[in-house]
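Re: [ENG-882] Designed sequences occasionally contain unexpected residues at chain ends

Forwarding the minimal case from QA. Structure tokens:
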């Protein structure tokens, strides 16, 4: 159960359930309880990014995204876990981390019932059921149709073409393209 800061926030929240006075995006149909939220959202469609990082030049559509980004440069990690003391740059990262301690997995798969701590992990998992493989090798994709359900699998596959071998065995010095190629005796 979430507590809302004021009666104003409560009235805005209730609009989600009643559909009253919702502000709708003409591009994608997404609805918002505040006109300001719709204005911020519209920058996704217009590509407007008026907030720039003075350190690296990266631009953002929202000032809070710039503030979060600046922590990369400052090293600031203002969100700390009360259980283990680990610190994070983003509050959502702390929320995700806390699920390790609580065991909470709020994102269940409707197909098989398996649950996940992160919605992104559920999205990747769903590709098992849908067969979706959105990561296609540009080198051989046209020839053999190789595509992958995860970006990391495509990255590993690309090493066939680039010859990159970033993993070295500390025991024997053997250099390999894939971490999983290390065989235990």
């Amino acid at each position: 159960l979430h507590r809302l800061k004021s009666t104003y926030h409560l009235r805005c929240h209730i609009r989600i359930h009643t559909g009253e006075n919702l502000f709708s995006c003409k591009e994608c149909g997404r609805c918002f309880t505040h006109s300001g939220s719709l204005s911020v959202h519209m920058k996704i469609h217009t590509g407007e990014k008026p907030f720039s990082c003075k350190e690296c030049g990266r631009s953002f559509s929202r000032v809070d995204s710039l503030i979060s980004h600046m922590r990369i440069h400052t090293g600031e990690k203002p969100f700390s876990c009360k259980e283990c003391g680990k610190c994070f740059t983003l509050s959502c990262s702390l929320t995700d981390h806390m699920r390790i301690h609580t065991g909470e997995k709020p994102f269940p798969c409707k197909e098989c019932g398996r649950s996940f701590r992160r919605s992104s992990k559920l999205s990747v998992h769903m590709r098992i059921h849908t067969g979706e493989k959105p990561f296609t090798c540009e080198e051989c994709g046209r020839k053999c149709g190789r595509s992958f359900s995860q970006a990391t699998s495509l990255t590993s596959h690309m090493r066939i073409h680039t010859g990159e071998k970033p993993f070295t065995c500390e025991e024997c010095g053997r250099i390999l393209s894939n971490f999983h190629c290390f065989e235990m005796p």
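QA comment: On inspection the terminal residues look reasonable. The helical segments are 7-18, 35-46, 63-74, 91-102, 119-130, 141-144, 151-162. Proposing we downgrade this to a documentation issue.
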